[in-house]
Design a protein that fits this description.
single chain, alpha+beta, four-stranded antiparallel β-sheet, 57 strands, 31% helix, nucleus
Length: 1324
């Protein structure tokens, strides 16, 4: 679907002083063209048109002129090689010498020559019918006859079986089985009768076209690089001398004259000589045409024909250059260049595949540069049919892609022009469906689709053949009149149709290095387009683009700079972007376009090297094609993806494209077939047309375009269109609700009325899910912050239930009978399906219309499993409904009918109980069994015990009743088995089981309730005293010394044991109070003082051991961190030894490989999320992970954790030590109190002074600019270390355990120090 667009036509000449040029050669590096005729060779600087060298080719000895056979530039020798007809092989180094150097001579003369593609071998045919192969030093390697008399290595061989007459020939019929003998006649009189040589692109084979002496006809012989004969072509009558082997190696092209038709066609041969297709060369003139030369370009995409016009056998001055391409096995004539003065010779550029150098007979050297482009409308408005045109000679193949897709080489319509077409332009809106063709004859052909004369219409199959497009008709042929421009009308390029009457084109300026912008006006009354105004550009104009909204024209020069032309203005101005900078592409682009990105008009361009630019920004370096949508820029890439870039972003915010999606739900990227290219994009729709490498077309609807279109439709409340689009393209139906939940729920009635069909409503309800698709699968197309705020208040509400309830309410208002299936779907789709209501609806229809009820039940069975529905029906206690459902199931009537009959015979409540128990609805079963009286009470108790329905059972009976007490006792027994003794005691109290309650409270250590129950049982004093001793012992075993003391004093009256209990619990003040209360001062010496000394020793030893541990761990922590710093420095210097034994000391967090510390942090402060292994196993793994073993990976963090625990333990002793100090001083242990206070104060000071050195991760300064991990680079690590940053961790600090980040704080609110226990008077 692509056409060739002429980028530039540069003509130089007029002062070369050379005529009858027969050969041309072009250099790549210097841009010099060499021209040769029979007398001299001229070197021309092709851009400036200046002659930089000239040398005579006439030998001084003989003075005889000889025409050149071949001219090639040898890149490795920096010289041009000329081979003449008289046999001389000459070299000319134009920069070093002014004379030809004769390097060799063939005495018999030379008829043809050709260098191999690598310029290592030279093939020459001589006048006596010999074929010579030479090296690049002109040494003969092989000499053989040009017409071999042996069979070739690749010739066809008959193996003795199978004949053409016996083979099946399909639709060709039996006539194809007949062997046709080809009569070979003598070569055409226009044939030069000379051999022709052509190499394959890889240099492994070459072909020679030669006239056989026996028949006088031409044949093609293929030879290997070693000059070994391969094959002879099959007989083709009228084969001409033109020959060119396709560089890709697949075909050999030549030309055949059809004797009976008087026309010519290009024929193709395979390497083995078999014919492989052809195409007819159309007549472009009333005179005869003869193909003088045939040429493939470097990438094998274009076949060029050089044709001369003849009147009989007389050659005329007119010549043509035709460019042909092939796709889908159809050959298209893309460009036809007419030269009134004739063409001397032409040659493709050796480097640029789409550049050709043509030497005209008039003495001008013309360089043409083309580029591939697709001619199509932008389809930004609904009236624009997205026309795509394909040039095929004098025909324009047109297809409206908005309405239909016609596979090439076919088309929806063919517009026929009087001469070949070289360019196409489309009219401005609203006439964008009009076509303006630029003809090779230098005229315009105008086709309009809104002409009343247009009678031919194009219909779309499958749509009742409804007319969708009127075929454009030829309105007229317009001459091109150039006023004040010294250029031919057929030499223009870059056509833009900017208004109904205004046309812009480009012509060569005053020199080949600049262009002129021509401003034309269409004058229908004169049947002409008159170009009266022009603007001179500073350089060559490479491309143009027009924005129909802003009416601006962008011009791209050959250096990549962009200029702006505003229609009506008299000058050109640089294109300035929003930052005030001039726009210039880093590389010249062959395709440009104008669009709006981020409310700014920008220029987008694509180079031949796949670089895509937006203004000065390179967005992609692997772009193969692009298209413009109203909301997106679409690109295909070399990684076989289609990217959709939203135009809502600013140009500076557009990221450089990568091959992968940014996240799993990114709909802006999708895979496409390898080699796909964008043909056109429907700007206001969702259709994107792609062409595959083999030529076929495919239509896709990218998800990003679909979501964008759906958002607009839903905002406009176009429910029907939105629903059908979602259904057609399989978008999740939840988008209809999630796009705007509030608006959707407020307009449910309208939604139902608009959609209408129950099947559509059922599909919507069935697809409902709880998740918000605007935040999950389509999140890339929605603003997440807005969605989060909108839906934050509804997170606790079920979306499915809300929508189903809204639909059910709407169905009630609109009439349930119209939407029976949809109502059933809504009931079934709720989070907790309301199948009973659904069955009740079906049963209500049963009495009205049997068929409707039957259909409703069948549909419900489609939604719900029949066995589940049977259980629901049974739960309604309606046996008729149960039978109705059961008949639809696979159940055996011998099973369910006896079961139902048995249920019918039971008492009503017991029947309901039996059904509920069968359905495992134990709560409802309990409710019914509780109404069955005393006969079934034990069954009720068994049900409660089996299914743990105790709480519900207590509500069924009156408190204080025998049944209630029984249930409470059962509940209490159950709670005892769960070790819930206190709750069991409460239930025993409700059951008035006082002894059982006392025992339960005793197990729960609730001594107040124990003695309540004892008094309720009327215990005497001895019983209470005995009970008190037992209870006090149990309390002391649980270290509840105060409660034990209270029980002994109040109920056992054992004061000494009570005081001893307080002393054991270190409740010193309360013990002293009871000693003085009961006048037991003797206990001070016997119990208090020994206990004080024991407590003093315990605390002194504890402080000493904790201090020792703290100092050892602190010292080890310094060593570990020093080793890490050393290892980090070694990595920075490049001297690290990764096999060092101390490498394990470097944790994952400080490794410069970027590993994250988050993978090794403690999970002690968070919930363990892995569900494997027991709690004990997990604790063991956690302890092993945070091992204090020297050299372990996490030793540093284990040390910090251990130090934090020591600080917390010691700091928690303040209150205990404060009380202990007071008692020590009170009983005259002053010196020991002073030592204890000093020791405790000293360890607290040690803690305070070391906290800042231990907890370094919580300090922001230590992590600034030094985050390691996957986002860090070697440079960032090195720079941070050079600045003195401490090796940090990746990401947020909160990823670590708080104990590693937050240092423990010492409690300063507890005043524990005693002034009277200070060691010196200064402290007092």
């Amino acid at each position: 679907m692509r056409n060739l667009q002429l980028l530039n036509r540069a003509a130089v000449g007029g002062g070369f002083n050379i005529s009858d040029v027969e050969c041309i050669a072009v250099t790549v590096d210097t841009g010099i063209a060499f021209l040769a005729n029979s007398t001299e060779v001229v070197a021309i600087e092709s851009k400036a048109g200046e002659v930089v060298g000239r040398v005579s080719s006439v030998p001084e000895e003989s003075g005889t002129e000889s025409e050149p056979v071949g001219l090639d530039y040898l890149f490795d020798q920096h010289a041009v090689c000329l081979v003449t007809r008289d046999g001389r092989i000459c070299l000319w180094e134009h920069e070093m010498s002014s004379e030809l150097e004769v390097c060799g001579e063939v005495a018999q003369g030379v008829t043809a020559m050709s260098w191999s593609p690598d310029y290592e071998l030279l093939i020459i045919t001589t006048g006596d019918g010999k074929l010579l192969m030479m090296t690049n030093e002109f040494d003969v390697i092989t000499e053989t006859t040009i017409v071999p008399n042996v069979e070739g290595e690749d010739s066809n061989v008959a193996v003795g079986w199978g004949k053409k007459e016996t083979q099946f020939h399909g639709s060709a019929g039996k006539q194809a089985a007949k062997v046709e003998l080809v009569e070979i006649r003598a070569a055409n009189e226009k044939d030069d009768r000379l051999p022709q040589i052509s190499w394959r692109g890889d240099g492994q084979f070459f072909a020679v076209s030669v006239i056989e002496p026996d028949t006088g006809g031409r044949f093609i012989y293929t030879w290997s690089r070693e000059c070994v004969f391969q094959a002879r072509s099959e007989a083709v009558d009228g084969l001409q001398h033109s020959l060119c082997w396709k560089p890709s190696g697949s075909l050999i092209a030549s030309v055949q004259t059809l004797q009976h038709a008087g026309s010519q066609e290009v024929v193709f041969f395979e390497k083995n000589g078999l014919r492989h297709g052809q195409f007819l060369i159309p007549a472009v003139s009333q005179n005869d045409m003869f193909v003088k030369k045939i040429m493939w370009n470097q990438d094998s995409t274009i076949l060029a024909l050089h044709l001369d016009e003849y009147n009989g056998t007389s050659k005329l001055d007119v010549s043509y250059i035709q460019l042909w391409t092939v796709n889908n096995y159809h050959w298209y004539l893309k460009q036809s260049l007419r030269f009134e003065s004739g063409v001397a010779t032409a040659r493709w550029d050796p480097e640029h595949a789409l550049r050709m150098h043509v030497m005209a007979q008039a003495g001008h050297l013309v360089t043409y540069t083309w580029a591939w482009d697709t001619d199509h409308t932008l389809a930004a408005a609904a009236s624009d049919l997205a026309l795509v045109t394909v040039i095929d000679g004098a025909n324009i193949l047109v297809t409206p892609m908005r309405e239909m897709l016609v596979p090439p080489p076919m088309a929806a319509a063919t517009l026929v022009c009087p001469s070949p077409v070289n360019g196409v332009a489309f009219g401005p809106c609203p006439g964008s469906n009009d076509v303006l063709a630029y003809l090779s004859s230098g005229k315009f052909a105008l086709f309009t689709s809104n002409d009343e004369k247009s009678s031919e219409t194009i219909s779309k199959p499958g749509d009742d053949f409804k007319c969708i497009w009127k075929k454009p008709v030829l309105k007229g042929i317009f001459d091109i009149k150039l006023v004040g421009v010294g250029t031919s009308a057929s030499d223009l390029c870059h056509m833009l149709w900017i208004s109904a009457e205004k046309i812009i084109m480009v012509a060569q300026g005053n020199s080949p290095s600049n262009s002129r912008l021509l401003l034309g006006c269409m004058k229908p009354e004169e049947n002409a387009v008159v170009f009266e105004e022009s603007l001179e550009a500073s350089s060559v104009i490479m491309s143009m683009a027009f924005n129909q909204e802003t009416r601006n024209v962008a011009l791209e020069l050959d250096d990549g700079t962009i200029w702006k032309y505003v229609p009506g203005s008299k000058n050109l101005s640089p294109w300035i972007n929003s930052q005030g900078k001039a726009v210039s592409f880093p590389s010249p682009c062959t395709q440009i376009s104008l669009t709006n990105v981020g409310s700014e008009e920008v220029v987008v361009g694509l180079t031949e090297r796949f670089r895509f630019f937006i203004n000065n920004i390179e967005v992609a370096s692997n772009c193969t094609s692009f298209g413009i949508h109203n909301d997106f820029l679409l690109l295909t890439t070399l990684s076989h993806t289609l990217r959709c870039l939203p135009t809502s972003l600013k140009p500076t915010d557009l990221p450089k494209l990568s091959a992968e999606k940014t996240h799993p739900f990114d709909e802006s990227c999708r895979r496409v077939e390898r080699g796909s290219r964008i043909v056109t994009v429907v700007g206001d729709g969702t259709k994107v047309v792609l062409q595959m490498p083999r030529g076929n077309l495919e239509t896709i609807h990218p998800r990003a375009l679909l979501i964008s279109s759906l958002k607009k439709l839903m905002d406009r409340n176009s429910i029907q269109d939105a629903f059908m689009t979602i259904r057609k393209h399989r978008i999740n139906m939840n988008l209809l609700h999630d796009h705007n939940p509030k608006h959707f729920l407020e307009n449910v009635d309208n939604f139902i009325k608009t959609i209408g069909k129950q099947s559509y409503l059922n599909v919507f309800l069935t697809d409902l899910i709880e998740e918000d698709v605007t935040q999950t699968m389509y999140s890339a197309s929605y603003d997440q912050e807005t969605n989060t705020k909108t839906n934050a208040s509804n997170l606790h509400v079920s979306k499915v239930d809300t929508v189903c309830d809204a639909f059910l309410a709407a169905f009630q208002r609109l009439g349930v009978n119209q939407y029976i299936q949809s109502v059933l779907t809504a009931y079934a789709r709720k989070t907790n399906p309301e199948l009973e209501k659904a069955l009740q609806l079906v049963w209500s229809l049963h009495g009205q219309e049997e068929s409707q009820a039957e259909a409703a039940l069948n549909y419900l069975l489609f939604l719900v499993d029949v066995n589940s529905l049977y259980d629901v029906a049974l739960g309604t206690y309606n046996f008729d409904l149960v039978m109705m459902v059961a008949q639809k199931s696979q159940k055996d009537p011998k099973e369910y009918i006896p079961f139902l009959n048995e249920l019918r015979r039971l008492e009503e409540n017991y029947r309901y109980y039996s059904i509920d128990k069968h359905l495992k609805k134990y709560s409802k079963a309990l409710e019914h069994i509780s109404r069955c009286g005393d006969d079934h009470f034990q069954e009720c108790v068994a049900l409660v015990s089996e299914h743990k329905l105790h709480c519900q059972a207590l509500l069924m009976y009156k408190p204080g009743s025998p049944h209630f007490k029984k249930m409470a006792t059962v509940y209490g027994d159950y709670l005892l088995t769960k070790n819930r003794h206190e709750e069991a005691g409460i239930e025993f109290v409700k059951a008035e089981e006082w002894l059982m309650a006392l025992e339960a409270f005793r197990r729960a250590n609730d001594w107040q309730q124990v003695f309540c129950m004892a008094h309720r049982l009327d215990y005497g004093k001895p019983q209470l005293s005995e009970l008190a001793v037992k209870v006090a012992g149990e309390l002391k075993s649980r270290q509840k010394y105060e409660d034990a003391s209270a029980v002994l004093i109040e109920y056992a009256e054992d004061h000494e044991e009570a005081i001893v209990a307080l002393i054991e619990g270190s409740h010193w003040k309360k013990a002293l109070r009871q000693i003085y209360r009961f006048k037991r001062l003797d206990l001070i010496d016997t119990h208090v003082l020994p206990a004080l000394e024991e407590s003093l020793d315990h605390h002194s030893e504890l402080l000493a051991s904790q201090r020792d541990l703290f100092e050892r761990y602190s010292a080890r922590l310094k060593v570990v961190r020093a080793l890490k710093e050393k290892a980090a420095a070694q990595v920075l210097e490049g001297t690290a030894d990764y096999n060092d034994a101390e490498a394990d000391l470097i944790s994952d967090a400080t490794s410069v490989t970027g590993a994250s510390l988050a993978s090794t942090h403690s999970s002690r402060s968070t919930v363990f999320t892995k569900g494997t292994g027991s709690a004990r196993t997990r604790r063991k793994a956690e302890n092993k992970k945070w091992s204090l073993k020297e050299g372990s990976a996490n030793e540093e963090f284990a040390l910090v954790d251990a130090l934090a625990k020591i600080i917390k333990v010691v700091d928690g002793l303040k209150e205990d030590i404060s009380v202990l100090l007071k008692l020590l001083v009170q009983f005259n242990f002053d010196q020991r109190a002073i030592k204890l206070q000093a020791a405790y104060n000293e360890i607290l000071q040690i803690f305070q002074s070391n906290i800042a050195e231990i907890w370094v991760y919580g300090q922001k300064s230590s992590l600034a600019g030094m985050n390691l991990g996957p986002n860090s680079t070697a440079n960032s690590v090195a720079q941070a270390l050079q600045k003195g940053h401490v090796l940090g961790i990746q990401g947020e600090e909160g990823q670590l355990d708080p104990v590693l980040l937050v240092a423990p704080t010492l409690d300063r609110d507890v005043r524990w120090k005693l002034h009277i226990a200070t060691a010196t008077d200064q402290g007092r």
